[in-house]
Write a structure and sequence with these properties.
The protein is mainly beta. The chain starts with 7 loop residues before the first helix and ends with a strand.
Length: about 850
């Protein structure tokens, strides 16, 4: 059994701090004074990381001309959350999708992460995803950044590819600090499921020389080992049952053992020779290595004779032995992102000119992915399946399936992958300032190249492998037994010695060619943009109006792979496409300072998002044996959205805010996947293609409140509170045949997203409890409502405690996923669980030093 980490420590610490802040702080100070034999100067041990980061974020929002929200580090460069994506989810209208329990993709106002633009220090970054434009934000360590901004309604001088929003990641300049600054931290984190303790460390240095030249650099490292328990189910129509009655044809128990390494480094140089001239160099590098072992046991109950017993219970007779399978997969995914930019700003006699050259490179390498597959060898089995719970429960009449010695070798699947994404950019802006107005003009060029090579092949000819030689103890799994365990180390050692002895069967030649070539493509995308924008101040009203024009030149190459029905032969036809289109994007923004710290904002603009590379690449994969066709669509048009935003903001001193916003988006050409069984070009085949659907609409409201309760009596005036909520109403027409009369919500759009935090800072203590709730959302569409996939509601609860011993040294404790909530997907209805993945709780203890 795994070691258990008690939740009591986190709860008791939280209750202790929240119950009597004044007494707690006083007792701590008194004990510290007694130990040292001298009084303690409160100013010397004051710690306010939450308040400082909140103040900086409020200042960013208040000074912005656009509608935006921000997350900022405190004065020591520390965030209230450790992960960039999870820091952003605290903002109103922002949620995240998770990978192995960690926030990865950011969803703004319910729109797909692929509809966001993500930039680092003003340079757009690519994505290691092989087909999507969505940029993962867990690959950028938060210790390498200074500010995170989410612009929800960009002004004309910003790139227009931001229907969801623009995520601006900014690294630190030496001028963000005072004088010399050196800080470091070390941390050990413990994951409940794996019982592993993992290290993390970071060091950052900055200094300004002669008040003109600044250097800021940082290095950070994390090596996290953890596990997750996953159960997945596939449902299909039950033959002979009532209409719409679905049976769990297949059930899988999966055990993941993961080691994730993150390395980040940044170097920023600034030269400010005088007040009129500035020059800079920004560089950021991040490396993300994900070594993953996956064991899974598969029960294909649908292969037997299924009889309904009533009350959602079924008997399975004559279940063939090979319906039970075991598979062991190992792969190391290496992703790295590098961005650099150099530029400057010069104040001329009558104008201000700024300019920038940028380069970004994103790579993914999966060179060693392999999966060994085995099938149970024994007598036919009997089983029962109970579908009265979310995850079906099952029993098997024979326990010999648990013994690895009863399995025969089936095949080895090798799946290497390579993704290269590079972009060069250049931009220049010219601004003329008047007494109450300014005029700004700019040019931007972006030249992006992308190369994706996804290979997969099955090898079935070779020596039989005895799975018993790879046997380990049965892995712990919250969802049930996987039988005896399998060692990925033993598998890799065996393959290193014997891999050259395996080959493909002749009848698999076509299938291997299909899986090796159909996902491959190269693409080139050149974007040329220009804009003109004016800003006018009329009393307390600021008016910003202008237009942006973006021309896109796109070309790509891919393959048309057609496999013969016998699988022994295939043909490959190269495909290429090129096209050009122009988008005109007007925008009008109003900001009214109503006095008494009230600000009213309004915006009306047009934004665009380009199709994902994998959707628009010219690719055709045809499998005659499976009677399936997958087709890319080079004629896809970009999404275009007309947006209206209104917000009312009340600033409470320098640290607090109450805001309410409403917004509306009307999106033309929303892109969806379609499946057809009557395509005239492919009679008798199931054809999957991507098309521009009809109009989609997003309507919503956002509320945000955060404040230090400084008006409370002494001791309680260190309380910090915050709450935000987003309410969405989405609708779109995917153009699916047979479902014309149905109403659909946008995929990945939760109807409700709420977050709240309660913190306390006094003397040397800072503590925080934070929760985020995201309601269910549609993940993907099926042939009918019974096959639509949803992600269940989820609540994340985290706790942190920081104590500052001296002005330079502090310790902290953090607890994540305190509610131990799983990731859950269901099919059609909530009672039909499709996937349940559990991660357990994670605890961290660390030390911070600042000099």
């Amino acid at each position: 059994m795994h070691k258990k980490t008690s939740l009591g420590l986190a709860i008791s610490l939280s209750l202790l701090v929240m119950t009597s802040p004044s007494a707690f702080a006083a007792e701590a100070l008194a004990s510290g004074a007694a130990a040292s034999g001298s009084a303690i100067d409160l100013d010397r041990v004051e710690v306010r990381p939450q308040l400082e980061s909140q103040t900086r974020a409020v200042d960013l929002k208040r000074s912005s001309d656009a509608i935006e929200d921000a997350v900022s580090s405190d004065a020591m460069g520390v965030y209230p959350d450790k992960n960039v994506a999870e820091s952003l989810q605290r903002l109103p209208g922002v949620s995240v999708t998770r990978d192995q329990g960690e926030g990865r993709f950011v969803v703004i106002r319910g729109l797909d992460a692929a509809l966001n633009s993500v930039s680092v220090d003003g340079i757009a970054i690519g994505t290691p995803e092989d087909s999507s434009r969505a940029a993962p934000l867990d690959v950028i360590p938060s210790d390498s950044t200074e500010r995170l901004r989410v612009v929800k309604s960009p002004t004309p001088d910003m790139p227009g590819d931001a229907i969801g929003g623009a995520i601006l990641v900014e690294s630190a300049s030496a001028f963000d600090r005072e004088g010399r600054n050196l800080r470091g931290k070390i941390e050990a984190s413990h994951q409940q499921l794996s019982a592993n303790t993992s290290p993390k460390a970071a060091i950052n240095y900055s200094e300004v020389f002669a008040d003109t030249f600044g250097v800021a650099l940082g290095v950070n490292y994390q090596n996290r080992k953890f596990e997750s328990d996953n159960t997945e189910v596939e449902y299909g129509q039950f033959d002979g049952g009532d209409e719409g009655e679905l049976f769990a044809n297949s059930l899988q128990q999966r055990k993941y053992e993961i080691e994730r390494k993150r390395i980040g480094a940044n170097l920023n140089l600034d030269w400010r020779p005088d007040e009129d001239n500035r020059y800079y160099l920004r560089t950021l590098y991040s490396q993300f290595d994900d070594a993953e072992t996956r064991q899974r046991t598969i029960f294909n109950f649908g292969d037997g004779e299924v009889t309904a017993l009533g009350n959602n219970q079924y008997r399975v007779d004559d279940l063939p032995a090979d319906a039970i399978q075991k598979r062991m997969r190992y792969r190391t995914k290496k992703e790295n992102t590098f961005t650099t930019s150099a530029g400057g700003e010069n104040r001329l006699t009558n104008a201000v000119v700024d300019y920038k050259l940028g380069y970004t490179r994103t790579e993914e390498r999966v060179n060693d992915e392999m999966e060994a597959r085995f099938e149970y060898d024994g007598d036919d089995l009997g089983a029962t399946v109970d579908q009265n719970t979310g995850i079906p429960r099952y029993t098997l009449g024979d326990a010999r399936w648990m013994d690895n010695g009863n399995y025969d070798f089936d095949r080895v699947v090798l799946s290497p992958k390579r993704v290269d994404d590079k972009e060069h950019s250049a931009q220049i802006n010219l601004r003329f300032d008047g007494d109450a107005s300014s005029y700004k003009f700019g040019l931007l060029g972006r030249w992006r190249d992308r190369d994706v090579n996804v290979d997969e092949r099955e090898l079935r000819l070779g020596p039989a492998i005895a799975l018993s030689d790879w046997t380990t103890a049965s892995p712990d799994h919250r969802g049930g037994s996987l039988g005896q365990g399998m060692s990925s180390d033993a598998m890799r050692r065996y393959w290193a010695q014997n891999g050259g002895r395996y080959s493909a069967r002749p009848q698999d030649a076509g299938g291997n060619a299909l899986t090796s070539l159909e996902e491959d493509y190269t693409a080139s995308e050149d974007i040329f943009a220009s804009y003109a924008m004016g800003t006018w101040d009329v009393g307390a009203l600021r008016i910003i109006g202008g237009v942006r024009v973006e021309n896109t030149q796109f070309s790509a190459t891919g393959n048309n792979v057609a496999v013969a029905s016998n699988g022994r032969s295939f043909t490959v036809t190269p495909l290429s496409v090129s096209r050009s289109y122009t988008n005109v994007l007007p925008g009008l923004h109003l900001r009214y300072d109503a006095g008494d710290d009230w600000v009213l904002r309004a915006a009306a603009n047009k934004t665009v998002s380009r199709p994902s590379f994998g959707d628009v690449a010219p690719r055709v994969g045809l499998s005659r044996g499976d009677e399936e066709v997958r087709i890319g669509n080079p004629q896809l048009d970009p999404y275009e959205s007309k947006n209206i935003d209104l917000s009312l903001e009340k600033y409470i001193g320098s640290t607090g805010i109450v805001s309410l916003g409403v917004f509306h988006k009307s999106i033309d050409g929303y892109i969806v996947n379609t499946v057809s069984n009557n395509d005239p070009a492919y009679p008798g085949f199931e054809v999957t293609r991507v098309i521009n659907g009809n109009k989609a609409t997003v309507k919503g409201a956002e509320f945000n409140w955060q404040q230090q309760l400084a008006f409370l009596p002494a001791g309680w005036d260190g309380l910090l509170v915050g709450a935000s909520g987003t309410w969405l109403d989405t609708d779109f027409d995917p153009g699916l045949a047979g479902r014309e009369r149905e109403d659909f919500t946008l995929p990945r759009a939760s109807k409700h997203v709420y977050s709240a935090h309660l913190g306390y800072e006094k003397a040397g203590f800072s503590t925080r409890v934070a929760a985020v709730y995201r309601s269910e959302y549609l993940d993907s569409l099926g042939d009918s409502g019974a096959y639509d996939i949803y992600v269940a509601p989820n609540t994340q609860l985290d706790f942190s405690l920081d104590y500052k011993f001296t002005p330079n040294v502090s310790v902290y404790f953090e607890a994540q996923n305190l509610l131990d909530k799983p990731l859950e997907l269901y099919q059609g209805v909530r009672s039909r669980t499709l996937q349940n993945e559990e991660y357990g709780r994670t605890y961290a203890l660390g030390l911070k030093v600042a000099l």
